[in-house]
Amino acid sequence: MALSTAAKASFWAGFVVLFVLFVWIFNSVLTPFILGIAIAYLLSPVAVKFSRKQIPRWATALIILTLFFATLTLLFVLVAPMVFRQAQMLIEQIPNYIQNMLDYLSPYLTWIQDRVGDDYIQQINDYLKGSAGGKVAGVTGGIVGGIATGGKMLAGMATTLALTPLVAFFMMKEWPSIVRWVEGMYPRQHAKLIRSHRKKIDRKVA
């Protein structure tokens, strides 16, 4: 008996919810696999072009992924120090920005000061100038220190960095077989339509 539209919608909605829940629960384990699959999918059009030149699929995957991860590493090495310096300069300049803001608001603060008293406004100024920069620096330092000393986080990061290229390599190498396997599960009455939409998505990504 054919399912109604509402039943189909309920089924797929439940499937999506369960899938998201599954990914959320096992995110620490699944992260390298999800990243590897995403990278393999995004780079698959490049592999197709290489394959047309009679280059073995494994060699194509190895060349593309080596270039991809080498480029990412180079960008990280070049950009990360600059981003860190800019963030550090921003933290150091926050008290000056607050002082400039207070100077701009001085006429309005004077008007308020005349009505609520001198001590109240002075306390606000002292708090903003004396505490804001230190608090932001303290929070940022705590985050950086936590990342640097968090053994569990570093271990997870190392695992992700080690597994992601391997997963991406095997997924890219076997991508045509995976696509054929997935297409074999399409409902026959809708297979042509689903295949057409998938190819459109692939062309857009490419």
Write a structural description.
It is elongated and about 80 Å long. The protein has helices at residues 5-25, 27-51, 57-104, 106-116, 118-149, 151-173, 175-183, 191-205. The two termini are 40 Å apart. The model has no long low-confidence stretch (mean pLDDT 75). It is mostly helical and 206 residues long. α2 (27-51) packs across α3 (57-104) and α3 (57-104) packs antiparallel against α5.
SSE run: HHHHHHHH
Query: Roughly how many Å apart are the termini?
Result: 40 Å
Largest sheet: none
Class by alpha and beta content = mainly alpha
- Determine the number of helices (DSSP H or I, runs of at least 4 residues): 8
Poorly predicted regions are: none
Helix percentage: over 70%
- The outline comes out as elongated
Portion of residues in beta strands equals under 5%
How many β strands by DSSP?
0
Mean pLDDT: 75
Radius of gyration: 27 Å
Provide a quick synopsis of the model.
With 206 residues, the protein is mainly alpha-helical. It has helices at residues 5-25, 27-51, 57-104, 106-116, 118-149, 151-173, 175-183, 191-205.
